[in-house]
Amino acid sequence: MFDIALATCASLPELDSDNALLIPALAERGLRARPVVWNAPEVDWSQPQMTVIRATWDYHHQRADFLTWAEHVASLNALWNPLDILRRNTHKFYLRDLEGQGILIVPTLWLEQGAQVNLASLMMQHNWSRVILKPAVSASAHATLLITSECVEAGQAHLEQYLPGNDMLLQPFLSTVTSSRERSLIFIDGVFTHAIERAPALNLDASAEDRLITAQEDELSLSQRLLTLLPTQPLYARVDLIHDEAGMLRLMELELVEPGLWLALAPHAVEHFADAIARKVKVGRRVL
Fold first, then answer.
1. Do 168 and 220 belong together in one domain?
2. pLDDT tens digits, 2-25
3. What's the start-to-end Cα distance of the chain, in Å?
4. What superkingdom does the record give (predicted)?
C-alpha cells in the first residue's frame, strides 16, 4: 500500500533524479510515495489517495489515451493537476485563449490540421526570416523545427509531414532566446518558489546551462495574473517567459501538465511541494 503515486513514463520507471527528491521529503511527512508508470496496465489506481503527475514525458504521443487515463484516475483518487487543466493544457492552442484574455504571447499563427499552407508566403507576409514550427501537442521540443529563409523547403516538407494529422504553431524565432534567454518561474500551490534562466533549446548553445536566478517584478506580476485566469489553482505550475527584441515581456508557455521544476536547484521548493501535497492529503482524509 502507498499514499501518493508519482506518475511517470515507461522510460523513467523510477522517476528522474529531480522528481525523486519528493519521495524522501514526503516520507518525512508520514506519506508513502512511489513512482508509477501512468499507462502500465497492471496498476490499480484505487490504491493511492493521490496521484501527482510528474514525469509523464511521453503523453504527447498518445494524448487521447493520456486524457482517458487521467479521467479514470480522477474518478478513483485526487489527481493533480486536475483533469480540467490537463484537457486544456495538453494542446498549445490554449495560448490563443490566453491571448484573447489580454496576455501578451509570442506572435503565433495557428495552423489547423489539414490546412493547405505555403510556409514561404507566410514568412514573407509577416517579415519573419527565422521561424519556429511545432505541433500543438508536443513536449520536450518534439517535432519542433527552427527554419530560416535559406531552408524553407525543409520547413515546408516538415509542415506537409505533420499538418495533415496535427494542429501546429508557427512563430517568429526570438533572438533573445540566446541572449537574455527564456526564464521560467515555478509556483507550488499558488506560491512562487524559484526562477530559472533556461539554456536555449534545439541545441542553439551547447555550452549553456540552466541556472537559478532572481525573478523580476514584471515577471512575477504577469505570472501571478496568469494563475488567476485558471479554473482551478494548480498544485504546480511553470511559467515560461521571454523578453522580445523590443523589451516586451511575453509568455512562451504556461506548463501545467508535467513540467520540469529544477527542484535540485531549489531545495526549499522540494519542502514546499511536499508540504502542499501533505495538506491536500489531509483535506482529503477529512472529507472522507
1. no
2. 999 999 999 999 999 999 999 999
3. 18
4. Bacteria
Q: Are 116 and 126 members of one domain?
A: yes
Rounded distance, CA 206 to CA 137, Å? 26
Q: Are residues 68 and 32 in the same domain?
A: yes
Statement to judge: residues 140 and 9 lie in one domain: no
CATH number at residue 238: 3.30.470.20
Query: Residue 140: which domain range?
Result: 109-173
Question: All 3 cell numbers of residue 151?
Answer: 531552408
Backbone angles phi, psi at 234, to 5 degrees: -75, 155
H-run or E-run covering 8: strand 4-8
Based on the domain organization, do 195 and 120 belong to the same domain? no
Same domain membership, residue 232 and residue 180:
yes
For the chain, how are helix, strand and coil distributed in percent, rounded to 5?
35, 25, 40
pLDDT digits (tens, 9 = 90+) for 205-253: 666 799 999 999 999 999 999 999 999 999 999 999 999 999 999 999 9
89 CB contacts (<8 Å, ≥6 apart)?
A: 81, 254, 255, 256, 257
Please check the confidence at residue 287 and state whether its pLDDT lies above 60: no
| pTM for this predicted structure | 0.95
Specify the number of domains making up the chain: 3
Residue 254: which residues within 8 A CB-CB, separation 6 or more? Answer: 89, 94, 95, 98, 226, 237, 238, 239, 240
Residues 99 and 217 in one domain: yes
Q: Are residues 15 and 47 in the same domain?
A: yes
Alpha helices in the chain (DSSP H): 22-27, 63-74, 83-89, 94-100, 119-126, 152-162, 217-228, 267-287
Residue with cell 517579415: 127
| Cell numbers describing residue 47 | 490504491
